[in-house]
Structure formats: C-alpha cells, structure tokens
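Intended use. Records such as the ABC transporter substrate-binding protein entry shown here are meant for training and evaluating sequence-to-structure methods. They are not intended to support clinical decisions.
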Amino acid sequence: MRKSMMKAAVSALCIGLFTCIGLVTEASAAAKCIKGDRKAPYTIGWANIYSVPTWMKQTEGTIAAEVEELKKKGLVDKLVITDAQGDANVQIQQIQSMIDADVDAIILIAGSSTAPARVVADACAKGIAVINFDSLVDTDEVTAKINTDSNEWGDTAAKWLIAELGGKGKILVLNGPAGISVSDDRRKGANAALAANPGIEILAETNTAYNVAPAQEAVTSLLFAHPEINGILSLGGALSAGAILAMDKQGRPMVPITGENARQFLELWKEKGLKSWATMQPNWLGAFATYTAVQALEGKDVPAFVKVPLPVIDNSNIDGYLARAKDFPADGYIFSPYDQKLFDELLAAK
C-alpha cells in the first residue's frame, strides 16, 4: 500500500513528458529478465545489425559515450560490440555468444522482427537485461523496448504532404528496407491518411537501404518512368536527400517532400528553398537503451515500453538544426541534445 501511494505521488508530479521531475522509482520486484546475483560493474553487449550506415555509426557513438560515463560511476566495466553486417541469422549467433559469455545486458536493434525472438527470450530467461530499440522484435520477453511511434511518423508525414498538395496530386513513396519493423511501421502509419484522400495517386514505391546512393538510383529510374510528379512521401532522411539529388540532376522542378534529420537533406532543403517536413529517430536512443539496462540491473523499475516523442522539423526551426551541423558528419544526422535528466524523465513518464 505504501509503495503504491509513493508511486501515485511521483506520477502526480508529472504534468507532461518533459515537465516530470525525473525520478525513477524503486520497483517492488526486479524489472523483467533481471535474475541472479548481478553486481556492478556490468558488461554490456551491443548486438549491432550493421555498422555501415552513418546513422548506425552515430548511434554506436552514443552507446560508447554513455558507457564511458557509466564507467566513471563504477557501474560498467566493459562494452562488447558485434556487427552482423545486415544478416539476421548472424545476429542471432552473436546474441547467443553473448548469452554464453553471460554478459549482464544486451542492447539490440533487430535485423528481423521475428527471427531473433527465440534467442532474445533465451537471454531474458537467463537473467540478462535485454533492451530493444529502433527496430523491434515480436516478443515481450525483453526488459524494455524503446522507440518513437513509427506509425505516428508515417501518419503525420502523409497528412503534411496531403495538406501541401491540397488533397490532390501524383506522388512517389520512398521506404526503407522491407521486413524491418521501423520501415514497415512508418509505411503502415501512412495508410489511413492516403486511403482517406483518393485524390492522391501513388505512382510508385521503393524499398531501399537508408543511404543516399541507392535512393538516388531508385528515384532516378522512377523519374524516367513518371514525367509528372507533385510530391514525395519519403520515410527516411537519406532517402529524401537521394530523391532531391536525382531530381536536380534531371532538372526536374522541386516538389514538397517529407523526410528526417539527415544533415544532407536539411542542407539541401535550405539551399533549394524546399517545402518540407521532417522528424527524427534520435541517435541517442542507443545511449538511452544503455542507461535503461543499467537502471534495471541496479534494481530500478523500468517500463516495458518507453515511447519517445517525435520532434517536428519545419521552416520555423530548421535554422536551429543547421546551426549545429558542423558538429555532425556530412553524411550523418543532426540529432537533438540529450542528458541523464531527459533519460530519467522518459523512464518516469508511464
């Protein structure tokens, strides 16, 4: 009863996500998957699906930086990194190796929404904290999942483009890789808005890696096939940059386009005076996942799912992002600042 009253009191202090006081409450029982006598300093495993895209490199950078901060506090002593090079089966093998080595926590972006479910559940059963973020696995046998709302992403992007086109026009739809939950969910999120506006005609769709070169190549082919387009529903920032470069090379007029916080896209947006809208999948989700794993191992209560709000980038605030561009790789993503206070607020916002 007393603990319930304490939790209620903490919840009452939270008016909104970013006005919470940043408390993480003690759980009446350990967080899911946490079993056994695990003591700090902990070994953290980062099961990376692939490290080639700059977004992944930046994300890994936030994980490494967070580990260094936790080392200073005596909470972590080692970070083990694997790279499956895009192969979901290899990722499963690497997760199994982490289980065999009895790491204390596994941080995971899944290469498949279904394939890793068994090995992830096995890690959980053996008392290893499992924090899954970005691309999620179809299992509840994890300590926590962390993500933005990909369906909301697709829905908001589609509604913005439809409004810009006045509910009528021919569009291209640019998706990330098929079979990856974050990509598939963004596209599903756009369905209702597109279906409600029959004046919007989808000329063609693509599925490419979240990289500029393949997106530019794919859009180049689509532009040859479709001499008239009125807008582009792009569900990835590198995809947007690739589309703009393809249109520019063919001398095509620019059209309203959605995207995300890829530096090249934001710079092209400003340079060409585009009508655009963007959001982001913050790279610091990696750091947050690492922090969450340690909080769980330390006996703190963590939510089964943490929803990270989607920011909006438009003409009212794009200059603020570009003012920080020099701090990010030319082919990277300009992500928002983060700190422990933000992480505690996110964990407290149940």
